[in-house]
Amino acid sequence: MSVIDRLHQKRERLIALRHELHAHPELSFEEARTSELVARTLSAAGIEVHRGLAGTGVIGLLKCGDSPRMIGLRADMDALPIQEQNLFPHRSKHDGKMHACGHDGHTAMLLAAAEHLAETKSFDGSVAFIFQPAEETVGGARVMIEEGLFERFPVERVFGMHNWPGLPAGQFAIHSGPVMACADQFDITLRGHGAHAAMPHQGFDPVVAGAALVQALQGVVSRNVDPLDAVVLSITRFQAGEAYNVIPDVVTLGGTVRAFRPEVQDQAEAAMERICAGIGAAHGVQVALDYRRGYPPTVNTTAEAETCRRVIAQLVGEPNARTDLRPSMGAEDFAYMLKEKPGCYVWIGNGLGEGGCMLHNPHYDFNDDILTLGASYWVRLVEHLLAKA
């Protein structure tokens, strides 16, 4: 790995910063302490600080030279409502809250890069360091955009990075096109006519209809969408009745749809509407589908993905700039930024061992060994995109 020497010399301080963030996790739109730490660190480095977008969002603006060009680099700050089960000294000090997705590491890496670029001034143009709240819930990126992020900071391109457990430390993954899927949600209500469980013929059973619906909806994936288009439809909730001897009036189902293209989302929703109507008619019950679009697919633009690949290859070598990893059916609200601006979202390997425990797991921890590498990537990307003449 080709870590920048100055960043390597600050490794212990960077680890301490990451541990401080990990020990004090804050949930979406509650990142007051984290926001204050970020703003204080940026200000101490001489970086112009802007606060208030999406409540706890922070933007650091660093200008160097005469170029009018501006790029955006984004890190997420929020934690998850998980009870941490690690026992190391920097474990969460707040019950029911945990940095189980590595946003502590993302924030630390971007802060380190911002400090370094403020010291070296090794570029010509402007960088907006975007510290975003609420990635894990309703989409802090969307809220920042709605509140004028790109009007106030008119970046030409925007870039993001996420740690990826299972990918060896020292490697990055770069996708040209889709990286992450959409995250749509749905609820289905089936209304029948309740009856005594011993006399089912006297009612219209929404439980039987619901069971049939669960099976029929699997046909959306296997029979309504092109086999070459990846899509997932998962039923994750089935709630019905409270007594052993009563057929209930109402059954509710819920779940998620994941896909990489808006057209596939449209096909899935339309097919679900048809199937719900058919099952309702067949079983004599009323079926209502409430389908809600969540995070859109995260899709990199081709030119920016290639630019990031070249920068990464120079940093860690061609074999470690991986382009062979498949996209994930997980979702990411950086997608909203990529809908507005060209850009690229890369994965940095979090390792295979103890530090590589899967995301959203109570035993997860960000791998401190990749902090300086991630910061070096941000620096080299800025120096490449905003190179001095």
TrEMBL record:
<dbReference type="Pfam" id="PF07687">
    <property type="entry name" value="M20_dimer"/>
</dbReference>
<keyword id="KW-0464">Manganese</keyword>
<dbReference type="GO" id="GO:0019877">
    <property type="term" value="P:diaminopimelate biosynthetic process"/>
</dbReference>
<protein>
    <submittedName>
        <fullName>Hippurate hydrolase</fullName>
    </submittedName>
</protein>
<dbReference type="GO" id="GO:0050118">
    <property type="term" value="F:N-acetyldiaminopimelate deacetylase activity"/>
</dbReference>
<feature type="binding site">
    <location>
        <position position="162"/>
    </location>
    <ligand>
        <name>Mn(2+)</name>
    </ligand>
</feature>
<dbReference type="InterPro" id="IPR011650">
    <property type="entry name" value="Peptidase_M20_dimer"/>
</dbReference>
<dbReference type="InterPro" id="IPR036264">
    <property type="entry name" value="Bact_exopeptidase_dim_dom"/>
</dbReference>
<dbReference type="Pfam" id="PF01546">
    <property type="entry name" value="Peptidase_M20"/>
</dbReference>
<keyword id="KW-0378">Hydrolase</keyword>
<dbReference type="GO" id="GO:0046872">
    <property type="term" value="F:metal ion binding"/>
</dbReference>
<dbReference type="InterPro" id="IPR017439">
    <property type="entry name" value="Amidohydrolase"/>
</dbReference>
<keyword id="KW-0479">Metal-binding</keyword>
<dbReference type="InterPro" id="IPR002933">
    <property type="entry name" value="Peptidase_M20"/>
</dbReference>
<feature type="binding site">
    <location>
        <position position="103"/>
    </location>
    <ligand>
        <name>Mn(2+)</name>
    </ligand>
</feature>
<feature type="domain" description="Peptidase M20 dimerisation">
    <location>
        <begin position="185"/>
        <end position="276"/>
    </location>
</feature>
<feature type="binding site">
    <location>
        <position position="101"/>
    </location>
    <ligand>
        <name>Mn(2+)</name>
    </ligand>
</feature>
<feature type="binding site">
    <location>
        <position position="136"/>
    </location>
    <ligand>
        <name>Mn(2+)</name>
    </ligand>
</feature>
<feature type="binding site">
    <location>
        <position position="360"/>
    </location>
    <ligand>
        <name>Mn(2+)</name>
    </ligand>
</feature>
